Amino acid sequence: MQDNPITSLKSAAYRIRRYALQMGAVQGQGYIGQALGMADILAVAYRHALNYRAADPKWEGRDRFLLSHGHYAIALYAALLEAGIVPEAELDSYGSDDSRLPMSGMATYTPGMEMSGGSLGQGLIIAVGMALGLRQKNNKAFVYNSMSDGELDEGSTWEAALSASHFGLGNIINLIDINNQQADGPSGKMLGFEPLADKWTAFGWFVQRVDGNDLPAVLQAFDAARKHPDPQPRAILFDTLMGKGVPFLERREKNHFISVDAAEWEQAIHFLDNDYFGDSANEQR
Amino acid sequence: MSSANAGKPRLKTSAMIASIASEGQRTVSAPFGHALVELASRRADIVGMTADLGKYTDLHIFAQAFPERFFQMGMAEQLLMGAAGGMAKEGFVPFATTYAVFASRRAYDFIHQVIAEENLNVKIACALPGLTTGYGPSHTATEDIAIFRGVPNLTIVDPCDALDIQQAVPAIAAHQGPVYMRLLRGRVPLVLDEYDYTFELGKAKLLRDGRDVLVISSGILTMRALEVADALQADSIDVAVLHCPTIKPLDQETIIREASRGGRLVVVAENHSAIGGLGEAVAGTLLRAGVAPSFRQIALPDAFLDAGALPTLHDRYGISADAIAESLKSWL
């Protein structure tokens, strides 16, 4: 990372948001609120924290990144585009027939997608198996699991939480996106999960809770999770804002699946560009 | 209690891990555990995982031999299957063990999505298949095959005896992709060594020929069918037994060929519900091929089965040797 790491992470987050909006525009729909909300976390993951080789997504030494919440695929595709793992030429195929970028993430379709998600509450459990396997092979890679707050409802999440701690799996970093939205309403009201940090701590995890849209805080949390000296699994709880970066989407009545009118996609991209480049954005581009 | 049992001594409920061997039958102790140890001594990628049922699936034999390759996952079947998938992603070949009821009913989505969808190399070996415990519906896996037959990529194996298990273990490990194997544990009967038989994944084998009845069977019902075939010789009834240990993919060619051979009654016998198991798989195969022999099923009823002693229950539900012999005679 040269110069100011935050500046370059900011531009990565901008590009991830822009890719996501472009893909949303292709389909006219998508879990765009989540993608915008998680862009800063993914920018730090793919531009700072993760060890990978873009040209060799199966490289044995890579850090594994599991997208447990398969419906966030649009967000991860944007990050994989930013990382150079998915070529930009494929962006327009998002969610279309025969595309490698289906609406819900599948390992069998997409380079860099480590699991077939979508049946929620499975990622952390897979992470336990992979982390045990890596340890068995004496491979020092990390397993990152990305999950939503809705997945805290699933019992399997807590089976995995117990297990990772039981086995002392310090090679697991669990990223929980707390945007407080799930299909039927605010996550906390569907099945209350607070005090969440206390729960993970009680399960034996090293826990941090930060604003997931505050890049310096996200960066610091990733670094602290990676460098934590004790043999215990690590959780980072990220409070994020759905639609972050596009003011009219941030303000939109908060739904799990934000509806965006046809004309609004361009408008959203325009907002994003203006915010990033300033008013001269259009001339610059 | 059915009146058929009147006057008989009332047997005690079988222990959950009761041996299915009949008195005086030759048995082998823990064939699965020993076969896995043998395999693991040749293959470093084999690991064993269980959900608090190592002892009751004979995986403890492996755990003792290879403690560093054994993973106790606790009483968490979703975790067991999902983590086995994770292990397979890292290049290992996990043998994951629990009871058939828990794998099929409790961990189904993890087998479906984590393991089968990505065609991961996980071997799921599950004890107490069908009616092999007297504990009642909580432990009686009457519909595990019905549940798993619809899962793409998943191979399903229902071995008959100790020899079948010994030979199936390396065979399913050599197969690339997920396998569900019904497991007999503890003192397991040895029967097939008396026949010219070797286990081949995906193959049905004719163990004995006969003019009157063709029994197509899997699992312990093959053992019963062989017993019945011997017994019915006294009544001049000639019974052929086609053992079909691989339920999926089914050896359709052999089944169609044998069922097409002249005028025999075709009976499918399985330690499973009449719904969705080998019987319906064979029926569909024959009907699609335009082969329509007289057809009967020996299978467990579509019901929550009683608790009790295994011999009583096998009689009651028509899968004891006596009950099978009676059924065959009544159908001829």
From TrEMBL, chain A:
Boundaries of every Transketolase N-terminal domain copy: 15-267
Recorded hits in Pfam families, A to Z, give: Transketolase_N
Q: Does the keyword NAD apply?
A: no
Q: Which InterPro entries match?
A: THDP-binding (IPR029061), Transketolase_N (IPR005474)
Q: Does the keyword Cell inner membrane apply?
A: no
UniProt cofactor(s): thiamine diphosphate
Gene3D superfamilies on file? 3.40.50.970
Print the keywords alphabetically.
Thiamine pyrophosphate
What family is it from? Belongs to the transketolase family.
Q: What is this protein called?
A: Transketolase
Q: Which organism is this protein's natural source?
A: Noviherbaspirillum suwonense
Automatic annotation (TrEMBL), chain B:
* Database matches in InterPro entries: PDH/Transketolase (IPR051157), THDP-binding (IPR029061), Transketo_C/PFOR_II (IPR009014), Transketolase-like_Pyr-bd (IPR005475), Transketolase_C (IPR033248)
UniProt protein name: Transketolase subunit B
Pfam families cross-referenced by the UniProt entry: Transket_pyr (PF02779), Transketolase_C (PF02780)
Read off the SMART domains from this record.
Answer: Transket_pyr (SM00861)
Domain Transketolase-like pyrimidine-binding, chain residue ranges per copy: 26-190
> Which organism is this entry from?
Noviherbaspirillum suwonense
